[in-house]
Amino acid sequence: MSAELALPDRQLNFGDPEFSQDIYSECASKARLREVRLAHSEFDTKLAVYLAAERQDREALNQSFAGEPGGQTFVAERGMVAGSYLWNAEIKHRRSKVLKVKAEYWVLYSGFKDAPETYVELYFRKIARFTTYPYFRSHFAMLSASAGLTLAPLPSLTERVD
């Protein structure tokens, strides 16, 4: 791969003038997903609030979710990057929480031998989100169904991550 472009004290982003699509494409084409594991999960529900919402105004249930990278480690000599991605989702009825789910997923990718670390980190930040979200979405559905809550599934991811 080409020589790494130095970006001291900050992470590389797609919009940076220093960003090279050729280097990123070469990294992405060689990357291989090796593992996705649920490392930690928290679940809390307020059934009384949910039952009250069902009787009063089910349309007032508001769903939100968010995710962010928890950090990653690149082992250059092995061409591997491992890290975590953190997800959380909430359902509220007016100002009361009906349900809260948090989960941390560990992800391992290989194929980055001789790849510039800044590009590997950028790849992880972008792709780990899309890799782990279907797992979180399924986890959320299973937990809410196990609690007897008839909730809409979390939406699909559609936004770009730049």
The radius of gyration is 19 Å
**Biggest β-sheet: count, sense, barrel?**
4 strands, antiparallel
Strand order in space, largest sheet = 1-4-3-2
Query: What is the average of the pLDDT values?
Result: 88
Helix/strand-derived category reads alpha+beta
Helix content: 25-40%
Name given to the CATH architecture of the domain at 34-146: Roll
The CATH class of the domain at 34-146 is identified as: Alpha Beta
Query: Which percent range describes the beta-strand content?
Result: 35-45%
- The end-to-end distance, rounded to whole angstroms, is 22 Å
Q: What is the CATH third-level topology name of the domain at 34-146?
A: Bacterial Protein-export protein SecB
Number of strands: 4
| CATH homologous superfamily designation of the domain at 34-146 | SecB-like
Order of helices and strands: HEHEEEH
Shape: elongated
Q: Would you identify the regions where 5 or more consecutive residues have pLDDT less than 50?
A: 1-8
Compute the number of helices. 3
